[in-house]
């Protein structure tokens, strides 16, 4: 009996394998090239050693050298297309933007985070996504709205400055600014989201609920491989994710209700910021809801997305820029001289930033050399698309390698060097279009219809905080230390060994 069963299973496996091989052969000429895939497991055999971030990118570059700038990997049940050429990226995202603007079916973790794709970053390309994005851009991220929060940015920098000074005193002048940068950006995004200057304890409570939830659901992405089987074994993790989501909702709900009450009854004498993100969400009536407002779960998910998107990417970019200024003291000195030359002894006003071209060059070079994400969020196609002689099948996942484009030696001279002068007059990056609408030389915020809507806000925050941090402190190398620019993947691409720097208050800093 056992031998008969073994023969039956062997025959079944050979039959399925034969069908798979025949099917793959018939479609091989249509898909972009890539390494051979095995039945059921796809390219998992080839990728088994590259699940760590620092192994996966070099492997992709090896495949690019072998197969070209557009390759196919099979990870799970859906083909994943990787595009690493800037010209092809422009052709896909801008010239054929409508075809490449969908999002793939979300991974299990993303379904938790996105309230089943009811957030801007994960929503399918269509009316619901347009309503959410248009509301965010016109009511919160429009330049006239952003200016309203100038006082809030000053308030947050004061928090950051006090925190850095306290850490410096307790650490004999040596600080690791990563946590300070993250908390400062989170304070600012909480203010813009809920419209309130909350106390530190309340902000920490929100931050803890947010980060615990994000850290846990990020571990569920292994479900992309055989989700039906792994869901059984990960029942406790799924249950824990739901518990953490409930906890996050418990923290967010009082803030949402408070804002709802403020909209009904204006409280006299209470400081209030007009048009917070919550205000716009409470007014939205998505077309697919039949005139109904967003659900409570959707509002919580959208707030979570807003806080996460605006905090980690900006604080990560800020840390990389400061690390480069510590490593390159001459660049830091030149930047400090520009800031002092514009300001004299007074505080920075946001309009002053327009008079600081070297500051802008430093920020742009930071985003080019150290993009917070080495891949934009995955794109998808809602129908079969012919592209560069290949057929991109419906629901395929399309990935764009941001870092490779920013380090293209055909565009950038010595691309691994941190050289802000390349963005000054006469440099290869002068006048570069960071949106990628004309051409793509770098795309830290993506490009096309799905470009990050917070691009302008992120650049403003980086310029404002870099200028103030260099204005207020000298960022020196710690004796005996080297600045290690090795990378690792968390929510964003961060420093593998966090920056340690000796902080020295500048005598001209305005108290």
UniProtKB/TrEMBL annotation:
Binding site for heme: 452
Superkingdom of origin organism: Eukaryota
CDD domains named in the record: CYP77_89 (cd11075)
Protein name: Cytochrome P450 89A9
Pfam families: p450
Species of the source: Apostasia shenzhenica
Location(s), subcellular: Membrane
This protein's GO CC annotations: membrane
Keywords, ordered alphabetically: Heme, Iron, Membrane, Metal-binding, Monooxygenase, Oxidoreductase, Transmembrane, Transmembrane helix
SUPFAM superfamilies, per the entry: Cytochrome P450
Molecular-function annotations in GO: heme binding; iron ion binding; oxidoreductase activity, acting on paired donors, with incorporation or reduction of molecular oxygen, NAD(P)H as one donor, and incorporation of one atom of oxygen
